[in-house]
Automatic annotation (TrEMBL), chain A:
Domain Thiamine pyrophosphate enzyme TPP-binding: 87-235
Protein name per Swiss-Prot or TrEMBL: Thiamine pyrophosphate protein domain protein TPP-binding
Annotated GO MF terms: oxidoreductase activity; thiamine pyrophosphate binding
Record has tRNA processing as a keyword: no
Top-level taxon: Bacteria
InterPro entries named in the record: PorB-like, THDP-binding, TPP_enzyme_TPP-bd
Species classification: Bacteria, Bacillati, Bacillota, Dethiobacteria, Dethiobacterales
Record's keyword annotation contains Metal-binding: no
Keywords per UniProt: Oxidoreductase
TrEMBL record, chain B:
Species, as recorded: Dethiobacter alkaliphilus AHT 1
Listed InterPro entries: CdhB (IPR003704), DHS-like_NAD/FAD-binding_dom (IPR029035)
A Gene Ontology BP annotation from the UniProt entry: methanogenesis, from acetate
Descriptive protein name: CO dehydrogenase beta subunit/acetyl-CoA synthase epsilon subunit
Length: 287, 194
């Protein structure tokens, strides 16, 4: 696969800002780096405008470090906190209208297949719970029904955090928020189950408190979408601002939720995806 | 071809200048160029660009990703000619490697914030800028912002059909056009020095 796009034109090496030289020299493009290598390479997201301790920012860093093929990946985002960080990510990305992300990603994936028939181009939707499970649920589910070859990753902070803290479909029952002062009346949606029933070949739920497993799941999801069918990963990314905990408590809060059973790590792989992933992972072991 | 009475001239034109296209400015056909709202032959525009560069006190190139990254055949040769033109004409270079917003860490001495090109122009007191290798949509927006908020003269050396929002817009710029520009600048410099 050609990586020429990451070569600076001769004569302009000294004119390019250091940040870009560093991306070319020590970025993750074409090197098959992962979360274990973080700290040794130039990350695809460095500065970002999200709040201190933001679970989304942590998840996003891990997702970006887990991409199997960042140089040929396009991320489709949607309105929400994460959308504030995407413009600063060194991967091609598109911002869709709120909730339209899976429809946009479907069209993009089809267009890329026509435009680059000999290349593998991964299309990965990364959106919040409002865009995925509430406002965009129609588009999300229809893309699964149509078996679009895309990966959907939900950054689940259990709220509409960017607009001041309304409850979302993913908010836990009873949770009290800035704009839900009486507490939520209904239980959290089980979107992994919906994804499975709607036709996803690979479904997982995970948190950034388990970075290696998160990496494995993101990679599996993207590889499955390439060859087998749509995939879905839900990542618990709590919000210190709206849930009013200290920024340094994000990971301990995740662990506490997992311990209490409010958030479970799950993985569902259908037979076709199992066979495909086994062939790849077996091949990797034998390398 | 219809010609608009509206002219894209040095600003500042106001907080929100209109897109030139919306005021009836049309792009030139092949072999032609746009100079301050008037369609002229390409060679006349090249002479005018050379004159403007030599008249400027502080001219700058703003090369975009299509030129800065050696992504396809022919780009390296084009980049070499842009460097040569910059050297011959005394044009400084501030790159625009991609279109990510640079907040709050923009250093206008070393790169241009594509979302606020006027900051880079104000900071460096640039009186003439040349866009090259910038994707159409960003060139249009940036040129409009520059026209709106600064008195910088804008020139688009476009590989495609040109930009209505630049004061001079040369289309289909390839090696031949860049060589012609180098020749024109060298010749006019020689005349001025003789």
């Amino acid at each position: 696969m050609s990586k020429n796009i990451f070569r600076i034109s001769p004569g302009f090496e000294d004119i390019m800002p250091d940040e870009y030289k560093e991306l070319v020299e020590s970025g993750p493009y074409g090197k098959d780096l992962g979360v274990s290598d973080m700290g040794t390479f130039k990350e695809l997201l460095e500065e970002h405008p999200l709040c201190a301790g933001c679970g989304l920012a942590l998840s996003l860093r891990l997702i970006l470090a887990s991409l199997p093929n960042p140089e040929d990946t396009v991320i489709v985002g949607s309105t929400g906190c994460s959308a504030l960080a995407f413009p600063q990510v060194a991967v091609h990305n598109i911002h869709s209208l709120f909730g339209n992300q899976n429809a946009v990603a479907s069209g993009l994936k089809r267009a890329l297949k026509l435009r680059f028939p000999d290349k593998v181009k991964d299309v990965v939707v990364i959106a919040g719970d409002g865009a995925t499970a509430d406002i965009g649920l129609d588009m999300v589910m229809q893309s699964w029904f149509r078996s679009e070859s895309i990966t959907t990753i939900m950054l689940d902070n259990e709220a509409y955090a960017n607009t001041g803290g309304q409850e979302s479909g993913m908010t836990q029952q009873g949770a009290v928020m800035n704009m839900a002062p009486k507490g939520k009346n209904f239980p959290k949606i089980s979107l992994p189950e919906i994804a499975r029933e709607a036709g996803c070949s690979y479904v997982a739920s995970i948190s950034p408190a388990q970075p290696k497993r998160l990496e494995k799941m993101v990679r599996r999801a993207i590889l499955t979408a390439r060859e087998v069918g749509p995939s879905y990963v839900q990542i618990f990314s709590p919000c210190p601002t709206n849930y009013k905990f200290k920024p340094q408590e994000t990971v301990s809060r995740i662990k506490q939720h997992q311990k209490e059973g409010h958030y479970q790590t799950k993985e569902y792989i259908n037979t076709a995806a199992q066979e495909y992933l086994a062939s790849i992972e077996e091949g990797k072991k034998n390398e | 071809m219809l010609e608009s009475k509206y002219q894209v001239l040095t600003g500042p034109e106001g907080y929100l200048p209109p897109a030139a296209a919306s005021k009836g400015v049309t792009l030139p056909d092949e072999g032609l160029a746009l100079v301050e709202g008037t369609i002229v032959p390409e060679k006349d525009a090249i002479e005018k660009i050379a004159e403007k560069i030599l008249q400027a006190k502080n001219p700058f190139f703003f090369p975009g990703p299509l030129l800065l990254w050696d992504w396809k055949e022919g780009v390296a040769q084009k980049a070499a000619l842009v460097k040569k033109l910059a050297e011959v004409a005394g044009i400084k270079i501030i790159p625009m490697p991609d279109y990510r917003p640079k907040y709050p860490m923009i250093n206008p001495d070393i790169e241009i914030n594509p979302n606020h090109p006027n900051l880079t122009i104000w900071h460096n007191k640039i009186d003439l800028c040349l866009f090259i290798g910038v994707h159409c949509h960003y060139a249009n927006v940036a040129l409009k912002i520059i026209r709106g908020g600064t008195d910088c003269y804008t020139i688009a050396l476009c590989g495609e059909a040109g930009h209505e929002d630049a004061m001079i817009s040369l289309r289909d710029v390839g090696l031949a056009q860049l060589e012609a520009l180098i020749e024109a600048v060298t010749r006019l410099k020689g005349v001025a020095n003789s």
